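Below: protein 1.
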Amino acid sequence: MAALNIKKGSSSHSAYDLRDPHAQVESSHTLAVLVDNEAGVLARVIGLFSGRGYNIDSLTVAEVDHKGHRSRITIVTRGSLAVIDQIKAQLGRIVPVHEVHDLTVEGRAVERELALFKVAGTGEKRVEALRLADIFRASVVDSTLESFVFEITGTPEKIDAFADLMRPLGLIDVARTGVAALSRGV
């Protein structure tokens, strides 16, 4: 395989550069889907994604209207704008789906995730884990002489950054809720 060396700002194209210059860039999108809270709805939504080869990066589901028996599914997925538009159209055709919103393109949104981190360590590593947890505003929700469980809430990027810092300090396990998101304003 030939190596490709392109300088920044260079306008020349290499015969080895096989990327389609007209291809749309994939980006992450957060979709909010309001559905009837009934058996099988989540399976149908997930089936739509898996049947067409779309990946789900994050998925959260909870009932948001007890009287109306409605749930909100928040899905984070990746794709070009054309793929995301196709996903939204296909979701809209599922009978118990009432609304589909792409929070990424409809305006500003608030996205948060909750995570639990189990970190084992003693001595300096233990002290450093506590110091970093304080900086990230993570709470200690369980503690033994050998480990901590930290609870942290924030953007997925904040959760990823905390995980990266905890790995060398003895990260044992992680549990993440997935993204919960709402559009800002009225």
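Below: protein 2.
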Amino acid sequence: MSNLPNCPKCNSAYTYEDGLMLVCPECGHEWSLEAASNNEDEKVVKDANGNVLNDGDTVTIIKDLKVKGSSSTLKIGTKVKNIRLVDGDHDIDCKIDGFGAMKLKSEFVKKV
């Protein structure tokens, strides 16, 4: 069995080759093999609503978050400016006014 990538549109595992193109039989999406190999190198970080995040974006916290090692919490609606994307479990590195340097998970923020 070949190791073809899943469909980037619907994540179906039933993709097949048709000449130089890859095709998804479930949603009908077609893309080139070169585009598939370029996307694998690049990690895409998305917020809670599915919007793609980039370095320098401004986000808002969507849930009260307890700060580990502290008695304080980050309140819902706290705006975080100039985020930086990093590898790891907590994929956002930022500085929050009143708290200092923090690492956040992208699932707890939304893009402004």
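The chain has one helix and eleven strands.
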